[in-house]
Amino acid sequence: MPRAEITFTSPTKLKTRRFALLIAPINNTTGARRTWQRLIAGDCGITSTRHLGFEYSNLPSQVAGIVPIGPKASGGWTASEHVTATEIRQAALFAQYSLAASAEALEDAGLEGGKSLDPDMTGICLGSGIGNLSDLYETSVAYNEGKNYRKIHPLFVPRILINLGAGHISMRYGFRGPNHTATTACTTGAHSIGDAMRFVQFGDADVMLAGGAESCIHPVAIGGFARSRSLATDFNDAPEQSSRPFDRDRAGFVIGEGAAVLVLEEFEHAKRRGARIYAELVGYGCSADAHHLTAPRENGSGALEAMRKALKHAQIKPNSIDYINAHATSTALGDAAENAAIKSLMIEDGGVVKASDINVSSTKGAIGHLLGAAGAVEALFSVLAIDQGVMPPTLNLKNRTSDFDCNYAAREAQQRKIDVALTNSFGFGGTNASLCFRKV
């Protein structure tokens, strides 16, 4: 029998397909615009978890970036304002956040309800790191107490599946294009956006909704990260000071929840319909540390490789980068490794002459670390930084050691011209991703 032959087209031959970035999300204050305005104003969304119950008061870390309960009009979350009664029953909280973020994304892009989109050429790329831990915990407890499988809800399995965030979006709007879910710890959101870019690049879709979602505020999740000594524990009585990227006194990250979704659209497709284009996604780089379960290499070599690959893909040199939105979660080792990588990229690769000319900030000081949603939220912030010419602040950066000598927009936003922005995401297992955006 003759053998089947498979041939491959190099991605470099497909670079005529450019990417318009349209926008939308939700995180720990609902709505993209409201969140951005609070961020630029220097507000902090991190609060105490003690009001959630005694089980939270016994944990070493008692702070989190919590989605506030309340009416949408005042910046709160009420599920019935965003999802139907059926979706509330069928969808876990992280998937509900995904639906809300997607609805806002489509509305902002002039595509409310998915109108005028070809369903076969419209897809979703959305993942989560943990998803909704409460469903797993509560079902396990109920089963253990009764030793009866009837204690398990008929929708238990669909509610815990990570791909159901993307699945519910496709079912709501009838999008039949690529339906893809990455779950790569804290790199999930960035991987989702980068993978969506490639679906468009290869002609599998004209429009992709891409991002990440997380609803992980639960004693088991916080306890687990606390046992691995990853969380901030020194500021339980001052939650707004607990996440302090690049600061001398940083001692762990602050867990957060929420979602963010971007609309990626093939450039000419967006132009034909007169869409508002916020920025262009021009580069995506991935790498692995191949080093440790939870810790990066101290020299940040994995992060550096991801950034270099993103710039190579974008065909942009380091001296063109105006702003870097850092992953920097407020951990001692992680922030130092990324800082070293950024300086290597920007100085050794010919970007700038001195470190003080490097513009980098971490928005986690304001909202905490949203795990699988972090990369998507920070991609959104990077795009808005380009669109509005504002470098978001790094909150709580009051004292620096000598190695931290870049411009971090400490505690206050900075007005500046931003034509090219880079955003980083790194996760447990040593997985790294970097996205490069450019002003149109």
Beta content: 15-25%
Total domain count: 2
Spell the H/E element sequence. EEHEHEHHEHHHEHEHEHEHEHEHHEEEE
- End-to-end CA span: 52 Å
> Helix proportion of residues, in percent?
25-40%
Query: Largest sheet, if any?
Result: 11 strands, mixed
Dominant shape: globular
The CATH superfamily of the largest domain appears as Thiolase/Chalcone synthase
The strand count comes to 15
**Average predicted confidence as pLDDT:** 92
CATH architecture of the largest domain: 3-Layer(aba) Sandwich
Looking at the structure, the CATH topology of the largest domain is Peroxisomal Thiolase, Chain A, domain 1
Radius of gyration, rounded? 21 Å
Pfam families: ketoacyl-synt, Ketoacyl-synt_C
GO molecular function: 3-oxoacyl-[acyl-carrier-protein] synthase activity
Protein name: 3-oxoacyl-[acyl-carrier-protein] synthase
Keywords: Acyltransferase, Fatty acid biosynthesis, Fatty acid metabolism, Lipid biosynthesis, Lipid metabolism, Phosphopantetheine, Phosphoprotein, Transferase
Overview of this protein structure:
With 440 residues, the protein is of the alpha/beta class. The protein has 2 domains: 18-272, Thiolase/Chalcone synthase (Peroxisomal Thiolase, Chain A, domain 1, 3-Layer(aba) Sandwich); 281-438, 3-Layer(aba) Sandwich (Peroxisomal Thiolase, Chain A, domain 1), CATH 3.40.47.10. Helix content is 32%, strand content 16%. It is built from 14 helices and 15 strands. The strands form 3 sheets. Strands 1, 2, 5, 6, 7, 8, 9, 10, 11, 14 and 15 form an 11-stranded mixed β-sheet that branches. A two-stranded antiparallel sheet has the order 3-4. The protein has a two-stranded antiparallel sheet with strand order 12-13. Strand 14 (420-427) and strand 15 form a beta hairpin. Helix 8 packs across helix 14 (374-388). It is globular and about 65 Å long.
